[in-house]
Design goal:
This protein is mainly α. It is about 80% helix and about 0% strand.
Length: about 80
C-alpha cells in the first residue's frame, strides 16, 4: 500500500511512523518485524525518510538491528 508516494504520505499523515515505532518498542517478534518492513517501505518517500532519520529511538533500536545497513543504504539512495 505504501509503495506510492501518495499512500506513504497518507500513512505518515495519520501517524503511521509513530504506530510502527510503538510496535518496535512493545510488540512481539512478529509485530516488530512487520513494523520494520513498514518503516522500510515508507522510507522510500523523501519526507518520511527524513522523519525516520530524525528519530533516534527508531535508529538505535530493534529496527536497525534487523534492517540496519539495507535501510541506511536505501535512505542515502533516496536523499
Amino acid at each position: 500500500m505504501a509503495v506510492s508516494d501518495f499512500n506513504a504520505l497518507a500513512i505518515y499523515d495519520h501517524e503511521g511512523v509513530k504506530l510502527y515505532k510503538q510496535l518496535l518498542e512493545s510488540g512481539n517478534k512478529e509485530e516488530k518485524e512487520e513494523a520494520c518492513r513498514g518503516l522500510w517501505t515508507l522510507s522510500f518517500n523523501e519526507l518520511v525518510s527524513k522523519a525516520i532519520l530524525s528519530d533516534s529511538k527508531i535508529l538505535s533500536g530493534q529496527f536497525m538491528s534487523i534492517f540496519g545497513s539495507v535501510f541506511l543504504h536505501a535512505l542515502n539512495f533516496t536523499l
